[in-house]
Design goal:
Layout: E1 3-6, E2 20-22, E3 26-28, E4 31-38, E5 43-52, E6 57-67, H1 74-78, H2 82-89, E7 94-97, E8 106-108, H3 109-112, H4 122-130, H5 134-151, H6 155-163, H7 167-179
Antiparallel strand pairs: 1-4, 2-3, 3-7, 4-5, 5-6, 7-8
Helix pairs in contact: 4-5, 5-6, 5-7, 6-7
Length: 198
Amino acid sequence: MKVDVKTLDGKKMTGHAAQTPVGAALRIAPGFIATARDDDAGIETTIEAHYNAEKGRYIPTVIVNRSTSDEFNEERLRHTATQAILQAAIPHCITVRVDDEPNAKWSSVSDLTAGDSKIIPDWMAAAVVKRGVRDERWDVIEILYGAAALAGLPPVKLISVELDIPERTASDWVKRARAAGRLEGMTSTIGRPAGAAQ
């Protein structure tokens, strides 16, 4: 899904807009406006979302659906894919430093996205799974957890898929990353049993 992502004041979303620190390794934009167009259904959907620190994720505050043709599908208008649009937009609003250098550039997660629509490139996933270097592993867990939690998606499932590891291992790494102070400002109640902590 192709999504046009802008800042809240209507400018193109860039890494410069991501100035709000979240966790130890992420900076995010305080909010965004994302527009997706479904030419088959004849519908354009625009979502405005704001980061809510208490909930630890982006919350949609405005959703507008517009017909883009005379032949638009009224049934599809009622069932637009808000979550899919959020999921596609949020990687544009999260930045990370891949290098440890003091003057290293902040890159958006969307810039790091591999051609197969994964958030973490295969080479990076393979490195953190093989190596016992915890800081690098926690950086990647923080990126993936943040991308999922900020979009309101299940982080453990995303980490499992992205790193090609069992969900039990992903859950353990989330707990360890949180214990290391790497997931501050991000919470998720999705994909876990009632009363369980992630």
